[in-house]
Amino acid sequence: MQAICPDSDAHPIHLLGPESLTWRYFGDLRGLLLISRVGLLQNLHPGLAAGVQEHSDLFVNPWNRLFRSIPPILAVVYGGEQAAGTGLQIRDWHRKIKGVDAHGQRYHALSPELFYWAHATFFEGQIAVQALFGTPLDETTLERLYQESIHWYALYGLPMTSVPADYTAFKKYWQEMLDTRLEMTDVARWYLDESKDLPAPFPWMRGPLWWLLRPLFDQGARWLAVGSMPAPLRQRLGLPWSAKDQRRLSILARVVKALWRVLPQRLRYFPQAHAAMRRERQSG
């Protein structure tokens, strides 16, 4: 499918559809297991972390903020003809997010570096989920998935000049970001702090239910974020990870893979993704 994005120099953009790998992988519910990893990687960027710290309610209710951000992004991937409009809406939400980071450097959420880094973590997250909890993707699949991620990014109506041309270039970009740009920001430090008291994301979860679920949302999510992080970055940041932790993560991965084989498709995907797939099947 093609559409015209009014804020991308009137060039045609490709909408993602049921034939795309992105539809297969991005809406995979196993991604929830590593969503905290995506958030942590984003907030290790000093500019992005400053924007979150100064312009969001992260510290008031971090999980609610995270859950609010998922549906619009899913709508860009699975929204069909409405995807371009949703992408521009997401872009416009970020227009006023700007300021000065902890190093005294000015930042703007719509700068190519910051907005693309956020997008890159979502793209790379698909790869990480499959590598840990699914079937690792081969190079041909990775290249195709990356090319689709370029079409996905174009839906936000931002300049494309800083987007790596292919997956080989993306890997170089990713490694440079890990090695030279990411650092332990105040937001990341707060997230990794075990002493904070996280509130329930929604009012209906308060009370006994949250008492049961909080360890999963707090210690469990933080443990998965640290354990699935690229090992060199984890070591550079001084984050503890033992051989025992690695064995536990391997066991969890085997359990998730075994359970996944017996789940029906409607339980394997976010509701938005499953609804889009059902809609396409019915229209076909």
Can you describe this structure?
This protein is mainly alpha-helical and 284 residues long. It has one domain. It is 60% helix and 4% strand. The protein contains 13 helices and 4 strands. The strands form 2 sheets. A two-stranded antiparallel ribbon has the order 1-2. A hairpin with a 7-residue loop joins β1 (2-4) and β2 (12-14). The longest helix is centred in the middle third of the chain and has 22 residues, at 112-133. The chain starts with a strand and ends with a helix. Mean pLDDT is 92; it is low at 1-11.
Structural descriptors:
two-stranded antiparallel sheet, mainly alpha, single chain, 284 residues, two-stranded antiparallel ribbon, 4 strands
Short description:
This protein has about 280 residues and is mainly alpha-helical. It has helices at about 20-25, 35-45, 45-55, 60-80, 85-95, 110-135, 140-155, 165-180, 185-190, 210-230, 230-235, 245-260, 270-284, and strands at about 1-5, 10-15, 100, 105-110. The chain has one domain (about 1-275).
